[in-house]
Amino acid sequence: MVQIAPSILSADFLHLENSVDLVNRHADMFHLDIMDGVFVPNISYGFPIVDAIATKAEKPMDAHLMIIRPENYVERFSRSGVSMLSFHLNATETPDSVIDMIHRSGMKAGVAINPDIPVESLFPYLDRCDYVLLMSVFAGFGGQKFIEETYGRLVSLKSEITGRGLSCLIEVDGGVSGKNAAALAAAGADILVAGSAVFKSDDPAGVISSMR
Ligand code: DX5
Ligand code: ZN
Predict the structure, then answer these.
(1) Hey, which residues does 66 pair with through a beta bridge?
(2) Atom of ligand 1 nearest to the CA of 198
């Protein structure tokens, strides 16, 4: 069964508690997009927001780091109560040690790649991380159009994971909605991130259940 991760990036920041409440019982996890204005050309939010969400979230927090040198912040995200932490493969010179740090901090480790990075570059990490995050738009902004080439990449990644008998999950992020959720799950996605599809809708809970 596919898991649904609403992205807080598209929530109503003036009424964040309300946004969390709207999806709390329906979501499988909360997806938190952390951007530093350096690795990606946008700045999102930081620890005050993550800590506030932590007080209300009844589901695990899944933080997606779009920041350079993620190793500097692993411990801090763990202290905020994050249970899944992903970083971009090309944001650090030491991906293996970042995975180890995440595990030592008691979190699940994910490795993320943008659409222009070959999926094969994830292969050396598939037996060490808990999930991979396959971007289906270029990281940096919510509300972008889904890139169709993601399907082929997803199929290749899934066949490598199943062929090697691994348990690494695949999270797909960007432009995901009720229109492509079923096809993505069929192609091998285990976790679907959805920001604008959920929070720009009049019925966020309904969108989540239809995606599921
Ligand atoms: C983009 C983020 C996504 C974003 C998805 O850099 O990683 O998680 O919030 O937003 P939608 O679902 O609107 O494409
Ligand atoms: Zn994300």
Answers:
(1) 35
(2) 12
141 CA → ligand 1 middle, Å? 6
**Opening angle at CA 208, ends 34 and 190, nearest 5:** 70
DSSP 159-209: HHHHHTT---EEEEESS--TTTHHHHHHHT-SEEEESHHHHTSS-HHHHHH
Tokens, residue 123: 């292969």
When pLDDT is averaged across residues 157-182 and rounded to a whole number, the result is: 98
| pTM of the full structure | 0.98
Q: What is the CATH number of domain 3-211?
A: 3.20.20.70
The catalytic residues are 33, 173
Cβ neighbour number for residue 204 with a 10 Å cutoff:
22
List the domain boundaries for the chain.
3-211
pLDDT in tens, 138-164: 999 999 999 999 999 999 999 999 999
